[in-house]
Amino acid sequence: FSNGDPPLRLISLKDGTWAGTWTPERNAASVTVTADASQPDLSLKGRAQITGSLASGDTVPIVAAGAILNGASYARQAPVAPGSFVTLFGSKLTQGTAQATTTPLPTQLAGANVIIGGREAPIFFASDGQVNAIVPYGLPVNTTHQVIVTKGATVSTPQSLTLAAAAPGIFARDGSGQGQGIVVDAAGKYVDASNPAAANSIIVLYATGEGQTQPAGQDGRVIATDLRKPVLPVAVNIGGVPVEVLYAGSAPGQVSGLMQVNVRSEEHTSELQSHHDLVCRLLL
Q: How far apart are CA 193 and CA 183, in angstroms?
C-alpha cells in the first residue's frame, strides 16, 4: 500500500480467487494498491496495481457481523442455499430507500450492489439498514463465500456466508421470521387458530432455500409457466408428523427462489397454530 500501511497476506478461497480485508491506517489523497503473486516451484510471478482515493469512513457501507440471514426464517449462524431470499442488516448500506418495481430484479438499487462470491445478486428492497436480495444460482455449495456491499466508490468490509445445497425457511406473516407462518387454505385464507385446517384439506405454504432447481433457476426472474422444481426431494412435517406433499416448486407468477409447497393435512393435524408447528425440510 503506497500510503505506508503494512502488506496484507491474502487467503485462498479454494476456487482460484484470493481475498483479504484492508482497513486503511494512514490517510492519503491517493493510494496505489499493489498485488504480487508467485508460484516459486514453477518460476511464476505476476503483479497488478490499482490506484484510488480513500473515502471518509462515515460513508462506507457496513454489513453487521453474522447479519446475513435467510430472508424467511431469519435463522442466525445458519447456512443459506443458492436461490434463497436473504436479508442483510447493517448501516449506511444505501443512498436511500427503494423497492424494485421491475423484473428481472435489478442488481443495483438505491445506489447499492450486493456481491456474493464474486457475483452480483438481484435486489428487491434496499434501505440504509437493510437490504433484501437473492443468492445467485450456480454458486458452489458446501463452502464459504465473501459478501460485500458497494455504494458508489465505497466498499463494505467482507462478511462470510456459508452456502448449503438446501436450507429452507418458511416465511412469517409479519416478516419477522417468528410467529404465524404464511400458510393458507384452498380459499387463500390464512390457516391459524381462528381458521384451522380441516382434516384431509389442502394447505399451501411459502418458503425459500430449496437450492438448485430443474430446470435451473433464473436469477431475479419471474416464473410464469415454466415452473421449476427442487432438485432435492421435499418433505413436510406438521406437529412432527409427515404429511403428503402434493406439489413443491416455483410459486407461479413470482420471482424464482420463492417456493410454494402444497400439502394434504391429516386428521391429527387439523389445528395449525403457528409456523413453528410446520417444518419444511429438504432431504439431503
A: 12
CA distance 214 to 66: 31
Classify residue 222 as exposed, middle or buried by CB count within 10 Å of its CB (0-12, 13-18, 19+): middle
pTM: 0.79
User: Tell me: the pLDDT tens digits for 43-92?
Assistant: 999 999 999 987 666 688 999 988 999 999 999 889 999 999 999 999 99
